[in-house]
Amino acid sequence: CCSCPAGRMGLDPLFHAWSYFRRRKFRQCSELCSELLERPPGNQMFYFLLYPVQAAWSLKTRALTEMVYVDEIDMDQEGIAEMMLDENAVAQVARPGTSLKLPGTSQGGGPSPAVRPVTQSGRPITGFVRPSTQSGRPSTMEQAIRTPRTGLTARPITSASGRYGRLGTASMLTNPDGPFINLSRLNLAKYAQKPKLAKALFEYIFYHENDVKNALDLAALATEHAQFKDWWWKVQIGKCYYRLGLFREAEKQFKSALKQQDMVDTILYLAKVYLRLDQPVTAMNLFKQGLDRFPGEVTLICGIARIHEEMNNISSAAEYYKDVLKQDNTHVEAIACIGSNHFYSDQPEIALRFYRRLLQMGVYNCQLFNNLGLCCFYAQQYDMTLSSFERALFLAENEEETADVWYNLGHVAVGIGDLNLAYQCFKLTLVNNNNYAEAYNNLAVLEMQKGHIEQARALLQTASSLAPHMYEPHFNFAILSEKVGDLQRSYTSAQKSEEAFPGHVDTQQLLKQLKQHFAML
Amino acid sequence: CFTVTAPDLPILERKNWLIYLLYVRQDYEECKAVIKEQLQESQGLCEYAVYVQALIFRLEGKIQESLELFQTCSILNPRSADNLKQVARSLFLLGKHKAAIEVYNEASKLDEKDWEISHNLGVCYMYLKHFNKARDQLNNALELNKHDLTYMMLGKIHLLEGETDKAIEVYKKAVEFSPENTELLTTLGLLYLQLGDYQRAFEHLGNALTYEPGNYKATLAAGSMMQAHGDFDVALSKYKVVATAVPESPPLWNNIGMCFYGKKKYVAAISCLKRANYLAPFDWKILYNLGLVHLTMQQYASAFHFLSAAINFQPKMGELYMLLAVALTNLNDAENAKRSYEQAAALDKSNPLVNLNYAVLLYNQGDKKGALCQYQEMERKVNALKESSTPDFDPEKMVEVAQKMGVALQVGESLVWTKPSKESKSKQKAAGSGKSSSSQQPLGSNQALGQAMSSAAGYGKTMQLPTGAGAAAPAAKPPSLPLEPESGSEASPEETSAPPEAE
């Protein structure tokens, strides 16, 4: 029949839409579904018999959800409010080694700040930045507002976890006619009766609309309908509670889901809750129990490694990352972390091998080439050094990345003894990123070499105000002031330096010397 | 019957004993409370309370506040030299040396027999670079009252002016005066070390180490002296003691690296030296050593890299250019090698190796005349050295090469210095440094060199570049280039933020 409104390729439209969905062509799928749903009502009667409208409706919800889907496990972002005003941890002053909140005295035998740069006081920079990477916490609201917005998390920090909301609003743009489903008009109780529809709808509400409250209502009704025998609904309720900040309730749901059915996902969610409650040891035990049930599960081993890293226990983190690589030798996070760990423990050759492995796997970005260039230089592979940095410059997506590359090029220039080139490189770093404290510090050192004390002083002051957690500018300023004879400023700077890096021997010697000056007549 | 009670007039300085007691016991919190009470009672007129409060502020590093309080004190009691001295001291701690000098001068009008005033005046003048006045004041202070610190400052001034001999005299007197001060002992030992007087240097450093076994400076200096004599294991065990206390010291890692180099553990040497270089990228000595080790390992590209970096930081050193030329020779860049040798020969006045290596290069290039010229220059230097008999000149290896060279150039008969005559001398030394001279040999250099040289005689111009020519240089180099710890402590201000952003 020629008038038969078949798909463009002569296929049945619903089948075609379904095929699009399976090939992850979500936009085409959702457009085709919209067409199906917008048939004139007269026709619709006819189609109603052939194609259940509900199928198209459900398929469209799933397509829209998948377009904006981000795995909930990795979506862990604390805004300022959560960091500051939220008091979930039971122990306020925990023993060292049992809490994520204290950066901890570096017990793990990792490299000291003299070798490995730190992000915020005490936490060495990591090899792999995840959305949930927390590098230290601000201690007061004021400090949180004053520090650079990316100083604490991988993304610009917001006042409360606003990114979830932003995802929802972003999805509005995909539908110029407005939202696909008007949540306030839905009769959730009706949908909860039909599990097949309910699951897709829940995911839509949760991921696409980010309406946690409605999602929770639907999940509650659905789990009641399933007579509390469906672990999936329990996990979803737990997720909703977690988003709402009700961690203990979430923990209950996840635990009960785990009793019903062992799932890796559930273990990961439960561990997330424990981490949020600042109980890393409990989380680690949970992971280990999970590993008994799922031996060799990569995400679980990786979770343990992350906890070790967060607690500044870098060497045991590296052990677990190695276990990850035994299971999955293309795990980017593990390779990057082990690579950076080797780099900072005097083994740039081995780090180079790890990063080259990443390159072979097809990772192609600025950071990788930057790291490759550094490893090549420090492993004395001079033929690859500059070409890697060139490519990193070419691949840099924003000015911060360009600044990073120029900064490292400055280090290479220092390494070959060309101080003029180094000077230019550090200047270019500052042109690209005006808040690059390390570059200010290094420029000051170069100025000091030339004998320009006043410039050096000003640069060091800028550096120390930009990055109070770095010990180098404080220490350099202290030394400089001590040379000129201004012992008071030297003392205050040396004190700050000691705060940033308590184990620094030269700082301690300087402080001792200054105290002698003060005590003597 | 009546009793007359004495009127209970408030006495200003009633609780001074208590304030003093608390201050001396370092119970500053309690002391501050008493001071506050006392000041309230006396409406701020109690001089001693203000004075101690200022001292406490100074101990806490709040110099500005302490200055203000001391000024209050000197207003309360303008006839006291003590108050003026404290004002000046606070000014000095703030870096205002000229103002401090003025106040000290006023104080000295009130009290002429005070060593502290003279001492501090001397230190202030030193900061202002008026060395003559500073010396006079310090000598004056010594006459009034002898103090270790005054000696130290006086010695420092002599060193700043470049008079090592006078400085040594001063330190000698100081050590006589207080023989248990490790800092004085160490400084004196280091000065002797600089002059090459190893016996006395060892004595003083040893004394310093007996009084304070963990002394970083003395250990480093003693270790470097042992290294110079080839006792690498002993030096390493010395370094092990301080390595836990000072794990991130570039000079320490440099010396450890050179110990391993002496023991022919080249890979370990490189990794230690590279750690030192990572911690102190501006230190040319570490770069020099890295270049040397890489030359020994026959990794000429890396050697060139480190040596050229070292030249950028220290352009006035002939040996660096010589090693660079050796690296360049092996990188098949004879033109630049020649230029580098010329630079080396121009900069260096006493090291005959420069000329020997240059002669080898020229000979290999077929320039017999130039080679002869360099050879003669070398002979002249050797003669000069023989007269001065510098202890760390070890000619054995060189003599061999030079003789072959002489034969090749047909000047060998007229050698002014021959092996037998040298032998006795090097034998004497062999007791001390025989181990080092044998362990210094780089990988199979000598045989290679000998073969190359004999083949040079045989084939004349057509011969190839000998690989040994490069190795000849490190063969006769002292095994390490021990850093004097002064430069070690200097190195710390140049510390850069340890850098790379690996993400």
Would you summarize the structure shown here?
Chain A is an all-alpha fold and 521 residues long. Chain A is built from 27 helices and no strands. The longest helix of chain A has 17 residues, at 399-415.
Give a description of the structure.
The complex is a heterodimer of chains A (521) and B (503). With 521 residues, chain A is an all-alpha fold. Chain A is built from 27 helices and no strands. Chain A is elongated, with a radius of gyration of 28 Å. Chain B is mostly helical. At the A-B interface, helix 17, helix 19, helix 21, helix 23 and helix 25 of A face helix 5, helix 16 and helix 18 of B.
For the record, give the distance between the C-alpha atoms at the N and C termini of chain B, rounded to a whole number.
95 Å
Distance between the termini of chain A: 109 Å
Largest sheet entry of chain A: none
**Count of helical segments of chain A?**
27
Order of helices and strands of chain A: HHHHHHHHHHHHHHHHHHHHHHHHHHH
Number of strands of chain A: 0
